[in-house]
Specification:
Elements: H1 3-10, E1 11-16, E2 21-22, E3 26-27, E4 29-35, E5 45-50, E6 70-74, E7 79-86, E8 95-102, E9 111-116, E10 126-127, E11 133-137, E12 139-143, E13 151-152, E14 157-161, E15 167-172, E16 175-176, E17 182-189, E18 202-206, E19 216-218, E20 226-232, E21 238-240, E22 243-246, E23 251-254, E24 258-260, E25 268-273, H2 287-297, E26 302-304, H3 314-326, E27 334-342, E28 350-355, H4 383-393, E29 403-406, E30 425-430, E31 433-434, H5 436-444, E32 450-453, E33 478-483, H6 488-496, E34 500-503, E35 509-514, E36 517-518, E37 522-524, E38 530-536, E39 541-548, E40 551-556, E41 562-574, E42 583-584, E43 587-591, E44 595-602, E45 610-614, E46 618-622, E47 624-625, E48 629-637, E49 643-647, E50 652-656, H7 657-660, E51 665-668, E52 672-682, E53 688-694, E54 702-711, E55 716-719, E56 722-725
């Protein structure tokens, strides 16, 4: 049936206003469905759906004076009943306003209008999606006969664009040598972390001793909010941090550390995001845009695209490979061909599949959303089938023709199964959350794996992925790979040998060795190894923990300096391992005497979270965690007997300042690592550290040494273990 025939028989829809929408803005939109020749019977249904990755604020139909109020109306004689539902239409269109038609029918020429952000009763309106979309669609479908069979009609699409500049970001490489050419990038972002593409501000750059940067730069329309300066040089050995200021807009930023070494070692650090997907599956914007964002807006060195296999048709697989290969630029930007094998957890769970070259076989976990079933015999429904099939298809799996990366996404990978050749790595952090439990499970089972972090981004922002205001809980992670060169071959060799580490999104520069062996190495030793740690952070260092397997064996520094008049209250954890792991901590803290002089947020992840109100005795907040920590830092003028009364939907408790003293008070809150920690504020030790550590004795066996870093801003990093066998 042609589009014109569908329009004539089943109807069509439009939106007003049809103008571009600023991401995260509050407004009113009218989506009108025009009934076709078939009409709508008493008992029919119209669905207004949008993609489930979207964080467009959920409409409500109960309170006309409250935010997000929506209403429905019709020009015909029928009555309407509307409700907002999740997962009530076909993936990925699972956010849906369902409108029931009853007490009469509708005829051709009648219409139904859904008003999002109806302000007639005093509502402030409806908040739009917080991330950009080239063509955001409200997909309209009609069950015209009351049979639960839906026909999609021509539906309205509007662009979602970035907002005005809210902050500056400075990014660059992490390592260089004297007089070697490198680069520095400056970016303007809106309040939700989108590149502010209309930014036309003037920035002043403090190069911090680097050469090749202008003192002043006026952003041009062609920059689209991001400017990468090439030909930058460091004249001598040291650590450099570029600062930039936009006085007119009151913005300033400092870049990640650039470490200049006298002579480069065998390997150098490169930053990237191995994990995300585009709208060809369940994400946002096309795969071509996905890779361009990673290179031009996130300013990362490498990227992988991992679409859900059960949505990848042959045409989509062709497009993924074509874009990965077309946009591969050795020495500048590396792309990997791959997909996500997306079986249910009892069958193996989520595992990314990567290939080192231009191509590789697609073996789906199922054909559940693939219309063409002709190649369903190639499916691998269980992870053991995937292992066997990939071994038979690759030329030499031992030398690296394929790589699998178990991770925790909507589903989590089931580590009851593991192939030590195909799976050298696991992902311990993404926008879905912080998963140290996953790391520990792998080590407890004796697996020799390295650690990565990625975004698992669905919002078109790989490599620079704020969580927005939906089901994601944290800023997307990054992986740092120590490689010989920035090519597929160079990065592939490093990944297969576990020479990498993951961060919570910051470019924390970290080098860990054991007896000179790099992270990821496995070797024999006759005595306990000397663990050497070098770190250059993006904020003051709170602590660096060395683990041997599951045991924490050393912490640097050995003593923690704390503020006498500031208390940090931080809550963390996740409810369960599975999809609905997010924990909502919206709550308050009240002191029974004294005064709160200042209150600031700790490690909140998006504008949807943070402190809401502060008085002399109380502070309240909105917060969600998915393994990570959020919190508040309070500067108090209060006596030791002051009681802090903590109240959230998760846990309540009272703690006195006298109890806190110089130690931490930890309140268990159930779930997975769910807890509240009361402590005097750790002040940190500066942004650089270097030290060595050696245990006195070790039993025989294999000992995985790994390092976890925590900065005072809440940022973290996890290094791949070094496997030392005694």
């Amino acid at each position: 049936m042609t589009e014109s025939e569908i329009r004539a028989l089943y109807g069509w829809a439009e939106i007003a206003p049809a103008a571009p929408v600023v991401a995260g803005s509050v407004g009113t939109w009218h989506i009108t469905y025009h009934v076709g020749r078939y009409g709508i019977d008493d008992g029919g249904v119209v669905k207004f759906a949008w993609r489930d990755v979207s964080d467009w604020a959920a409409p409500q139909f109960e309170n006309p004076s409250a935010p997000e109020y929506a209403s429905v109306s019709t020009t015909g004689p029928a009555s309407l009943r509307a409700r907002f539902e999740k997962q009530r239409y076909i993936r990925p269109w699972r956010l849906c306003v369902t409108v029931d038609v009853f007490d009469d029918s509708l005829s051709e020429g009648d219409s139904i209008t859904l008003t999002l952000g109806d302000t007639s009763g005093g509502s402030s309106g409806n908040r739009a999606q917080t991330f950009c979309k080239e063509a955001f669609e409200f997909r309209v479908a009609v069950d015209w006969c009351g049979t639960w069979v839906y026909t999609e009609v021509a539906s309205p699409k509007i662009p979602i664009i970035s907002g005005p500049p809210h902050r500056l970001v400075v990014l660059g490489a992490s390592e260089t040598t004297p007089d070697e050419e490198t680069w520095i990038g400056v970016k303007a972002e809106d309040v939700w972390g989108n590149p502010s593409t209309g930014y036309a501000g003037t920035v002043r750059l403090n190069a911090g001793g680097l050469t090749g940067l202008p003192e002043i730069y006026q952003f041009q329309p062609t920059d689209r909010g991001v400017k990468r300066f090439e030909g930058v040089k460091a004249p001598k050995v040291g650590t450099y941090r570029v600062q930039t200021t936009d006085s007119e807009n009151g913005l300033e930023a400092e870049g990640n550390p650039l470490h200049c070494v006298a002579v480069r070692g065998t390997y150098q650090p490169f930053w990237g995001d191995l994990h995300g997907q585009s709208e060809e599956t369940v994400g946002t914007n096309p795969v071509s845009s996905y890779f361009r964002f990673a290179r031009e807006a996130a300013l990362i060195d490498f990227a992988g695209h991992q679409g859900n296999d059960f949505q990848i048709t042959q045409a989509v697989w062709t497009e993924i490979r074509e874009q990965a290969n077309t946009q591969y630029d050795p020495g500048r930007f590396v792309t990997f061909v791959g997909y996500e094998w997306s079986a249910n957890t009892p069958l193996g769970g989520d595992r990314n599949v990567y290939y080192p070259g231009n191509d590789g076989p697609l073996h789906r976990s199922s054909h559940v959303l693939i219309p063409d079933k002709s190649d369903s015999d190639t499916d691998c429904t269980h992870v053991t089938e995937l292992y066997d099939t990939l071994r038979s298809h690759v030329k030499d799996s031992r030398n690296g023709d394929v790589l699998l990366l178990p991770h925790v996404g909507g589903r989590y990978a089931n580590l009851n199964w593991h192939d030590p050749i195909l799976e050298p790595l696991i992902e311990v952090y993404s926008e879905w959350g912080e998963f140290e439990w996953f790391l520990r499970e792998a080590l407890e089972k004796g697996y020799r794996v390295g650690f990565t972090a990625g975004s698992d981004d669905h919002k078109g922002r790989p490599g620079a992925a704020p969580p927005g205001s939906g089901s994601f809980g944290v800023y997307g992670g990054l992986t740092c790979i120590y490689a010989v060169e920035l090519t597929r071959e160079g990065l592939w060799e490093a990944l297969k040998t576990r020479r990498c580490y993951g961060t919570t999104g910051g470019r924390i520069l970290l080098e860990v060795t054991a007896d000179g062996q790099p992270m990821g190495a496995a070797y024999q030793a006759s005595q306990p190894p000397e663990i050497a740690v070098k770190m250059v952070g993006t904020a003051p260092i709170e602590r660096i923990d060395i683990f041997r397997g599951l045991e924490q064996v050393y912490t640097f520094p050995t003593t923690t300096e704390r503020a006498e008049d500031q208390i940090r209250v931080a809550w963390s954890g996740q409810r369960i391992r599975a999809r609905n792991r997010l924990v909502r901590w919206d709550g308050s803290l009240e002191i029974d005497r004294g005064r709160i002089l200042e209150a600031e947020g700790y490690a909140f992840d998006s504008p949807a979270e943070g402190i809401e109100a502060v008085t002399e005795r109380t502070v309240s907040w909105k917060s969600v965690t998915t393994g990570d920590a959020d919190g508040v830092i309070l500067k108090l003028d209060a006596p030791p007997e002051t009681t802090l009364d903590f109240k959230t939907p998760v846990v309540n408790g009272d703690v006195s300042l006298q109890e806190i003293g110089d130690s931490s008070i930890v309140v268990d809150a159930g779930g997975i690592d769910m807890k509240v920690v009361f402590e005097r504020l750790p002040l940190g030790i500066g942004r650089e550290a270097a030290f060595t550590f050696r245990e006195a004795a070790l039993p025989t066996g294999c000992h995985p040494y790994w390092v976890r870093v925590l900065q005072t801003d809440g940022a973290k990093a996890w290094t791949s273990p070094i496997y030392v066998t005694m």
